[in-house]
């Protein structure tokens, strides 16, 4: 089954790294997210309560809102995104302690990870996870990665083939479960 909801677009990190943040006049009112889920049953009890990395979110209020999985809601994520967008347009990212460039990429990753945990909790019969394939040699990374596309796909395929009751609400890297 496929779950789709609109909030965050988390694509083309190579292009974002090259170009930095978009001009303030081009910041959309809404950003989109596609996050797929496969069947499964349980939300593991070991989902970290405060799992957002301070490397990604340095704004203390945003970090608090996105980190506590027990109180995490779609409205809280939307509040953080609205606050970020306002500060971005007003040129207040640094003053209000938002992440450095590429700030749009970093906040979209944090929001995507938060939505993953929300969806895992909301749909306990699905396995809803985030996965980072690692540094893959693709056009998006300008072929600067160290892994082949086949190697990068291994973790994605493993997660797509999880059995019922597999882990959900987690973030995976090529090395296994990681913190958000």
TrEMBL record:
Gene Ontology terms, MF aspect: oxidoreductase activity
Entry GO terms, CC: membrane
Record bears the keyword Cytoplasm: no
InterPro entries: NAD(P)-bd_dom_sf
Keywords (A to Z) from UniProt: NADP, Oxidoreductase
UniProt cross-references to Gene3D superfamilies, sorted A to Z: NAD(P)-binding Rossmann-like Domain
Heme as UniProt keyword: no
Similarity annotation: Belongs to the short-chain dehydrogenases/reductases (SDR) family.
Listed name of the protein: (+)-neomenthol dehydrogenase
The organism of origin for this protein: Tripterygium wilfordii (Thunder God vine)
